[in-house]
Amino acid sequence: MTSTSLDLGQVLLQRLDEAGQCSEPGPGVTRLFCSPQHREVLDIIADWMRAAGLTPELDAAGNLVGRCARALAGEPTLIMGSHQDTVMEGGKYDGMLGVALPILALEQLRREGCELPYGVEVVAFGDEEGTRFQSTLIGSRALAGNFEASCLDATDAEGISVRQALEAFGGAPDAIAEVARDPDHVLGYVEVHIEQGPVLEQRDHAVGVVTALTGIERHRIQVSGKAGHAGTTPMEGRRDALVGAAEMILEANRVLHASEDFVGVVGKLEVRPNAVNVIPSQVTFTLELRSPQAEVRARGRKQILDAYTAIAERYQLELNTEQTYSAEAVDCAPRLINALTQACADGNESAELLFSGAGHDGLAMCELTDIGMLFVRCRDGLSHHPDESISAADAASATRVLMQFLRAFEA
């Protein structure tokens, strides 16, 4: 590999293509926590780490951690990384870009003979999306020292618990507390990620510097009615759980559209008994709400759940709601924002300052250390989709910016 910027971008895309092959069959990339595909991609990432002078190790929480010699010796260390897991039928770049890019940047600095005066480690977090177990940020919460042991009891669709999956994968559930880093030895956490939005493309900028991460909450909504024969039960007086749930979903959509800085989605829907000629007796769906402002999210949540109660009463349905996840918005550290902005300027790249509407491992890592994030332009702002795409030129620009950031970073 030569040192030209375009070659860097091409190499990075080739590596991401290789990692993208570690997927369940079907469109896009499906790679779940503690799956065979997770194991397969870690072997590839470990080889990248060794080429960059890092020593790879699987930790108790299922993260692959690559450390340089200074980090292994216990010197103050800058942590970089992102997640390896994907949503169902996702793309090649969400998460994996933030694993492959810093490794390539370190490899190129090593090739140029640049020895950094502080420790570095790159982490391929095992679980951020929560696709398999509906319990997100397992890996980053372990590093931050705020992992909740109750997460080990969460189960997947086949009834396998996080504990069982980790043990089979080679992790050590009972030793996760030992993964926590000492804040006094951590210099910060920096993540590179595709933007997952259209701003950089609209501005024609390759990269952007993130100022804050959104707050997120998730709810499990269960609506129960009464099954009956679809042909013999009169319409009047039916307790159709799906009719009530459909109205609830539309109400959430109405509230979200009527509110500034408030987005959300009903992403998962289960209907019982799910038969063509039976009135649905129960519907379970997920409701995810996001806003950078806690008060906006709280106000919107109340509007939506109050409306759900009224709808359930009108249709004589039982309603059960459970909040399954919550993470408040967090600010990126000014010193890291400034350092990344300066690195962009030094590389003649415009440094668009923007807010992240997505959650990231930084939502957990902020409880350990200062966080910073560099966004990379993605085509059409598309993410969580097989057609995720970045250009080789933008990949090279982002790699070059991170290299400059690492050179100039003051421990």
UniProtKB/TrEMBL annotation:
Superkingdom of this protein's organism: Bacteria
Cofactor (UniProt): Zn(2+); Mn(2+)
Chain positions recorded as allantoate binding sites: 218, 277, 290
UniProt-recorded Gene Ontology molecular function terms: hydrolase activity, acting on carbon-nitrogen (but not peptide) bonds, in linear amidines; metal ion binding
InterPro entries tied to this protein: Amidase_Cbmase (IPR010158), Bact_exopeptidase_dim_dom (IPR036264), Peptidase_M20 (IPR002933), Peptidase_M20_dimer (IPR011650)
Start and end residues of each Peptidase M20 dimerisation domain: 214-313
Binding site for Zn(2+) 1: 83, 94, 193
Segments passing through the bilayer: none
Pfam family, one: M20_dimer
Cofactor note: Binds 2 Zn(2+) ions per subunit.
UniProt keyword Manganese present: yes
Binding site for Zn(2+) 2: 94, 129, 384
Keywords: Hydrolase, Manganese, Metal-binding, Zinc
NCBIfam families listed in its UniProt record: hydantase, PRK09290.2-5
Similarity comment text for this entry: Belongs to the peptidase M20 family.
Assembly with partners or alone: Homodimer.
Name of protein: Peptidase M20 dimerisation domain-containing protein
